[in-house]
Amino acid sequence: MTFDPNLVLFYVSNIENSTHFYSELLNVQPIHTEPDYAMFLLKPGLRLGLWSQNSVKPAPTIFGGGSEFAIQVVDEQTIDELFENYQNKNFRMIQEPTNMDFGYTFVTCDPDDHRIRFFSKK
């Protein structure tokens, strides 16, 4: 059996707020929207979906904050530039740029507390 994971879904409380947040975060517009759903193309073959938690079946019992969506960037300078850019947009930062075992990193959260980690490998 073969399969190709190609979609990450986040359940969100306000689709408009979350769509705006991810448009700012990713610097792209969604490729598809509905009243309760938005989809972003992250790269060929990988999409991010935002789904209104009120429309999900079966209904979710756990919401944001229990995992991370990680985005690798080229170098430490890019980490610092992204951090400053997002801080200037009043994104909620929960970890400032720091060195960890795997590389240089920071973490921000979306409006529903889904964690987004940016990192550059050592």
Q: What fraction of the residues are assigned to beta strands by DSSP? A: 35-45%
Number of strands: 8
Number of helices: 2
* Broad CATH class of the largest domain: Alpha Beta
User: What is the fold named in CATH at topology level of the largest domain?
Assistant: 2,3-Dihydroxybiphenyl 1,2-Dioxygenase, domain 1
Protein name: Bleomycin resistance protein
Pfam family, one: Glyoxalase
Domain VOC: 4-121
Description:
With 122 residues, the chain is of the alpha/beta class. The protein has 2 domains: 1-61, 2,3-Dihydroxybiphenyl 1,2-Dioxygenase, domain 1; 64-122, 2,3-Dihydroxybiphenyl 1,2-Dioxygenase, domain 1, CATH 3.10.180. 20% of the residues lie in helices and 42% in strands. It has 2 helices and 8 strands, in the order E-H-E-E-E-E-H-E-E-E. It has helices at residues 15-26, 76-88, and strands spanning 7-12, 32-34, 37-43, 46-52, 68-72, 92-100, 103-109, 115-121. The chain has a 4-stranded mixed sheet, covered by helices on one side. A 4-stranded mixed sheet has the order 5-8-7-6. The termini are far apart. The mean pLDDT is 96.
